[in-house]
Specification:
single chain; binds NADP nicotinamide-adenine-dinucleotide phosphate; 9 helices; Rossmann fold; alpha/beta
Length: about 280
């Protein structure tokens, strides 16, 4: 696939009111995108992102939308087309986590995770797809997580939503390639954003600075790598050496992976996230 040149192109980004999405908006602008359309629910925070994008010399389009609504994702795409005259990349970054032991969650918690982290991406995908098919080209970027490849305890709802996204991503990549549409799956490790602060949990007391304590990466670092991978039309980007190692080794031995998950990762992580029982 020939490279994706950002000049004059319209990039739509969900989850742009905070963290990685905000850093992506700034990075796409910095690297020469023609238009950046930024979306989230919190309009005040979106305005703050807009100020940062303006410093890079372009006027962003701000659009408040909830990814759990198919109608709002269609409206976002229509806004991008009306205000900028095009749509070239759909970066679906919005997401959050519900953490906790399965016995303390209920089916509704899993449904809510799926609504944002899986169906939220699907809504963005189906809103943009007709335009990509019509123009014979397009870029999808789906934000996943290292635990969307290698599950961890206390993460069953989040893992379920991100594993569903991995299956969808890997299945459609080859289909989309037939239409010259690239699908990039992004799998970050810990990143220093508001993500930890926004974790919902019935039984964990997650410190806001967990990613910093674990020497997480900065959203700016992640954004730089993602924009580069998007322009090179890569299919997958997995962050951190240790996550890559774990993901590659896990299929080799079920028993070794289970031992590490149950005896090392769960007690250690349980302590870090203040879970009574698994660690804390
Ligand atoms: N930070 C990490 O350690 C980490 C690690 C692995 C993967 N990730 C993934 O990276 C992505 C970005 O996370 P982040 O670290 O940037 O977290 P963040 O700072 O908490 O930002 C999350 C973004 O998602 C948006 N969002 C959440 N629910 C939404 C909804 N229903 N509709 C529209 N927007 C919604 C939020 O905007 P509003 O509140 O304004 O709607 C916000 O802009 C997520 O998909 C996350 O799963 C993060």
């Amino acid at each position: 696939m020939a490279a994706f040149d950002l000049e004059g192109k319209t990039i739509v980004i969900t989850g742009a009111s905070s963290g990685i999405g905000r850093a992506l908006a700034v990075e796409f602008a910095d690297k020469g995108a023609g238009h950046v359309v930024i979306s989230g629910r919190n309009t005040g925070a979106l305005d703050e992102t807009a100020q940062l994008v303006k410093q890079k010399g372009i006027e962003p389009v701000c659009f408040a939308a909830d990814v759990t609504s198919q109608d709002e994702m269609h409206a976002l795409v229509n806004e991008a087309l009306e205000k900028t005259g095009g749509l070239h990349a759909m970066v679906l970054c919005a997401g959050y986590e519900i953490m906790g032991a399965a016995e303390n969650l209920d089916v509704d918690a899993y449904r809510r995770q799926m609504e944002t982290n899986f169906f939220g991406v699907l809504h963005g995908f189906y809103a943009a797809l007709p335009h990509f098919l019509e123009q014979g080209r397009g870029e999808f970027v789906f934000f996943n997580s290292a635990v969307g490849k290698l599950a961890a305890g206390l993460n069953s709802a989040y893992c379920a939503s991100k594993f569903a996204l991995t299956g969808f991503t890997d299945s459609i990549r080859c289909e989309m390639a037939l239409h010259n549409i690239n699908v990039l799956g992004v799998y970050p490790g810990f990143v220093k954003t508001n993500f930890q602060k926004n974790i919902e949990s019935p039984d964990c007391n997650v410190p806001d600075d967990l990613a910093r304590k674990l020497m997480g990466q900065t959203p700016e670092h992640v954004a730089k790598k993602v924009v580069k991978a998007c322009c090179k039309r890569k299919g997958e980007l997995i962050f951190t050496f240790s996550a890559n190692l774990g993901i590659r080794l896990a299929p080799l031995s079920f028993y070794m992976t289970e031992f590490a998950r149950a005896k090392i990762a769960l007690p250690y992580f349980g302590t870090l996230v203040g879970h009574k029982g698994a660690g804390g």
